[in-house]
Amino acid sequence: MTAEQIHDIGRRRAWVIWLVSLAVYVLAVFHRSSLGVAGIIASERFDISATRLATFTVLQLVVYAGMQVPVGVLLDRYGSRAMLLAGLVLMTAGQLGFAFSTSFGWAVASRAVVGAGDAMVFVSVIRLVTIWFLVRQAPMVTQLTGLTGQLGAIAAAGPLSYLLHHLGWTRTFALTSSFGVVLLVAVLALVKDSPYRRDQVVAIKLRALAQSVRTVWGNPGTRLGMWSHFASQFSVTVFALLWGYPFLVQGLGWSSAEASTLLMAMTAWAVVSGLALARLVGRLPYYRSWIVVSVVITMVVPWTAVLLWPGVAPTGLVVVMAFATASGGPASMVGFDLARSFTPPHETGRANGLVNIGGFTASLLTMALIGVVLDLTASGGMETYTLGDFKLAMSVQYVFWTLGVVQTLRYRRRGLAHLARVHPGSVEQMRAGHPFVHPGIGTEGV
């Protein structure tokens, strides 16, 4: 039986709900990115090596990626509002614990709690977009979600750096944890899960969970979205969250202010490139995965030039490399749009969770390997790493770029064959420039 619609879709209430949930996502990105400029200070505060410094962000992302499937199931069962509230509670507690951490172990545990809360936010916002906006609005609002969320990265690159140097570690992180309390009240007051009186929720018993996830994972569209996310997202995450700042300051000899400015400029560029990418994806739905591959190649070329340049690369080349890297953020959002074409609405939480695993798995592996390579080449700590050490360590990205592109093209072929078989006419519809959204009938998978 069709549920009764009690609110307009794509109108004022939808935008209010989206803005409040978007604010939660901005805060999540801020907390996630806070070690980007605090890495050097953290290494001094806890007296740790590069590998142990990478542990902060790697564990945070391990928790984030590992929780995507259970979060997706819980999201389909309980809705976005409950998951946003749980995420805010965990992020606030974790960031407050990080503020007062004096030992490495306690600090790592605090970052893990932040990662657990962060894991619940983005997919919850994307589900609200899917439910509250019209089909023609959803792709652009999805892109705007990812782009606007990066305001958190800007705040973590500039204002957080300023606060750390003027207020100190404890007061800075304690202050930022308090923002979660304000947003808790806003979510409670304004966010609703659905414009329908009786939202369709999926009550999945534990014994059926494995089969449910296997079914969604068996859909080639889910894998296409995941590998697209894998190939495009990790480089900007690694650069912005952990290793970009030390690479610029310790490796290339930039000042702290110059490095922070570039990180903020990268986010601004991501917004500009993302808007252009959203229009391109909307007009060329058949070529979405090729667009992702093109963005990855655009990243690889300037990175190669910077790493092969004898000595310190020119400032202009580094800026081009950084901006190309930032374009990977908007490109990774295409993974969710791809999955939407293959997935019934009642499976979107699980599908988006699996897609989201891609980029963050690549990110945490890349971060960890960069730390390992740095410690193997120079074991004396942050102050002993040379530009050559950083160049060698940053080269591990090529492994993940190659794997991601190969798998994206592989599942593009499988995905198109799947659509042609299960939804006749859908491929021709996309070739003509019209988006195809799953009609919502049945459960698909291999």
From TrEMBL:
Membrane-spanning segments = 15-41, 53-75, 82-106, 112-135, 147-167, 173-191, 230-248, 260-278, 290-309, 315-339, 351-372, 392-411
Under the heading CDD domains, the entry gives:
MFS (cd06174)
The main location class comes to membrane
- Location in or out of the cell: Cell membrane
The membrane topology noted for this protein in its Swiss-Prot or TrEMBL record is:
Multi-pass membrane protein
PROSITE patterns according to UniProt: MFS
Q: Which UniProt keywords apply?
A: Cell membrane, Membrane, Transmembrane, Transmembrane helix
Among InterPro entries, the record links this protein to: MFS, MFS_dom, MFS_Efflux_Transporters, MFS_trans_sf
- What positions does the domain Major facilitator superfamily (MFS) profile occupy? 17-416
Q: Which PANTHER family match?
A: CHLORAMPHENICOL EFFLUX PUMP RV0191 (PTHR43124:SF3), PURINE EFFLUX PUMP PBUE (PTHR43124)
The protein depicted here goes by the name MFS transporter
Q: Which organism is it from?
A: Nocardioides cavernae
